[in-house]
Amino acid sequence: MQALFSRRRDLVGQGYNPRVENMRREEYPQLRDATYLDHSGTTLYSTSLVKSFSADLRKNLYGNPHSHNPSSKLASNSINSVRLRVLDLFNTDSTKYDVVFCANATAAIKLVADSFSGHPDGFDYKFHRDAHTSLVGVRELSKSSHCFLSDNETDIWLSTERDTTPDGDTKVGLFAWPGQSNFSGRRLPQNTWSDCLRHRHKNYYSLFDAAALAMTKPLDLSDSSAAPDFIALSFYKMFGFPNLGALIVRRESAGILQSRHYFGGGTVDSLVADVDWKARKLHGDPHDYLEDGTCAFHSIVALGHAITSHAKLFGNFASISLHTASLAVFLAGRLAALTHPRTGIRVVDLYCEHDYANTRVQGPVITFNLRSASGEWIGYSGVEFAAAEKNIHIRTGGHCNPGGVAYFCGLSGAEMEQNFKEGHVCGDENDVMNGKPTGAVRVSLGAMSTVEDVLKFLDFIKEKYIAIESDKEGWRARGSRMARILCSDIRL
């Protein structure tokens, strides 16, 4: 216990928020016996959020907003209010951006892809290696695509290749990248790339996947002249609830999204069923012609409560960024220092390119694989299985990030295809093939993470995977599910 207090005191000076430890008992009772370290999957909802939303539903009657009766008007007014609150959260307003509600970040990305694919001449697509699977999938709708394998390659294209498309040419392009890799937690530039794109490639638009980033870092869209054209995000990653996403649309760029072929209820002004005639709703706000059917109005009401509750509990996202970074620095440093006493081999291979203390370029995500005392890989699926037995919640695998897996695990495209031919698919237990990992262990921290969570995970790694020598024989980490529980004398 004394060690815990000592570690807490050291971390407070680095931005750690000790108030989280007390609030968790009331606000996050679901964590009573659990060590939750999968915030990149989703962060957790608070008791105050659930109570305030429930009280609202008991008090008010919300109807389908596609009408003019009192309950419909109440829903419409609430939706409009929450749109403005979302923009305020990201330091912008409705004169510069609009909020299009959808199911999640993937749905937001697909909305952009469908709009660009409906362009008469199609579109060219470029994306960064760190892209989530949902961003990679956009290439299937494009005329041509290219994956930038590094920041340097991206910078060269953005800064040295000037668009020579003649005036009047209707060819368009889309460049997409994530704000944060959901494999390694590496953070990529935001306005730097979108601003350069806007000035040097006049017919290209920018699509910024902020889903992983926005959970623990402020998203600033105040400079709309430099900020991305389209931003995709998921609110459950930020607040735990509701299961809702959004596409944030830069108004000056919204026109390109009017080329979608599909239309749904509420996005046409007039329509004939048995004749191919319709009058598309291509006026008003972008959400008027992009939100097909009835929007998730109850979830949008819940989002308003989520914003309020989250701010009361944690302040702003800048504070959350400091809190999670302090824990990430602590955890990564301790993991990196672990060695097998008998052989001196490092226990943990960290997959990180930057300093965890630098929140500009690195998020609170610690991704790694483990090695036995003989240097052999320990399968990540077994690590997740063993952690689950201790009620420790982590995530393992490829994390929907094929570029990250290839880069950090040293896998070529040919090797990844061969692994598939030999039976490996996403989510299975083929975690080491042909001498290389096919994915990794990922620990991700959130606003309600504590130093005790980190210490419990460190103890788990030490007890389960560090080999020690006894007088009779030397034990080896046995890998994956068969790893033997061994005690280590290494201290924090």
With helices defined by DSSP (H or I, 4 residues minimum), what is the helix count? 16
Overall average pLDDT: 91
Unreliable runs: 469-492
Query: Which shape, going by the Cα principal axes?
Result: globular
Termini separation comes to 13 Å
Q: What structural class do the secondary elements suggest?
A: alpha/beta
How many E strands?
Answer: 18
Query: Strand count, sense and closure of the main sheet?
Result: 7 strands, mixed
Q: Give the strand content.
A: 15-25%
Radius of gyration of CA atoms, rounded to a whole number: 24 Å
In helices, the fraction of residues equals 25-40%
In terms of quaternary structure, the protein is single chain
Strand order of the largest sheet: 2-8-7-6-5-3-4
Description of the structure:
- With 492 residues, the chain is an alpha/beta fold.
- The protein contains 16 helices and 18 strands.
- It has helices at 2-12, 19-27, 47-59, 70-89, 105-117, 133-136, 151-160, 191-200, 235-239, 286-290, 297-314, 317-337, 380-389, 402-409, 413-421, 451-465, and strands at residues 35-36, 97-102, 123-128, 144-148, 172-178, 204-209, 230-234, 245-250, 268-272, 277-280, 348-350, 365-371, 377-378, 392-393, 395-397, 432-433, 436-437, 440-444.
- The strands form 5 sheets. The protein has a 7-stranded mixed β-sheet with strand order 2-8-7-6-5-3-4, sandwiched between helices. Strands 11, 12, 13, 15 and 18 form a 5-stranded antiparallel β-sheet that branches.
- Helix 6 links the parallel strand 3 and strand 4 (144-148).
- Helix 3 (47-59) packs across helix 11 (297-314), helix 4 (70-89) packs across helix 11 (297-314) and helix 12 (317-337) packs parallel to helix 16.
- It is globular and about 75 Å long.
- 45% of the residues are buried.
- Residues 469-492 have low confidence and may be disordered.
- Residues 35-456 form the Aminotransferase class V domain.
- InterPro entries: Aminotrans_V_dom, PyrdxlP-dep_Trfase, PyrdxlP-dep_Trfase_major.
- This is Aminotransferase class V domain-containing protein.
